[in-house]
Write a structure and sequence with these properties.
Length: about 130
């Protein structure tokens, strides 16, 4: 599967999470905009996919921090693959950040589409849970 499939799964999950709280997601006139950054890591390597994150949102700084914490300072003795989703909720009228959170976990090599979708849905739910409970 490619990153495009992951984006589709993330967007479906965000829509489901917002819909479950009676809030719309993705409408042109929405009061809140949701942006997200996907981060993928292996030992010594970090990649970020900012297609749905926007410009001027500190992507490089976030990726540097993620690389330092997740790859360089990681004490795991095993070979690992991990991915995370950083979710921002932005006030559309002021363009101010109102919420940011990250959820990450290990990537399961060779996982089925259903397993990937479930893991992505769980990560999105974890990242957004504090937003909905505040």
């Amino acid at each position: 599967m490619c990153i495009r499939d992951s984006h589709s799964m993330i967007q479906k999950s965000i829509s489901k999470q917002f819909g479950a709280k009676g809030m719309s997601y993705g409408d042109r006139n929405a009061q809140l905009v949701v942006a997200y950054l996907v981060i993928y890591q292996e030992p010594g390597m970090t990649a970020s996919y900012e297609d749905y994150f926007g410009y001027g949102r500190d992507t490089e700084k976030i990726s540097d921090v993620a690389h330092t914490r997740g790859s360089l300072k990681n004490k795991r003795p095993d070979y690992f693959r991990q991915a995370g989703v950083l979710i921002d909720v932005i006030d559309s009228s002021t363009n101010k950040l109102v919420y940011r959170n990250l959820a990450k976990g290990d990537v399961v090599k060779g996982a089925s589409a259903g397993t990937r979708a479930a893991k992505i849905d769980a990560a999105v739910g974890q990242a957004l849970a504090p937003f909905f409970t505040r």
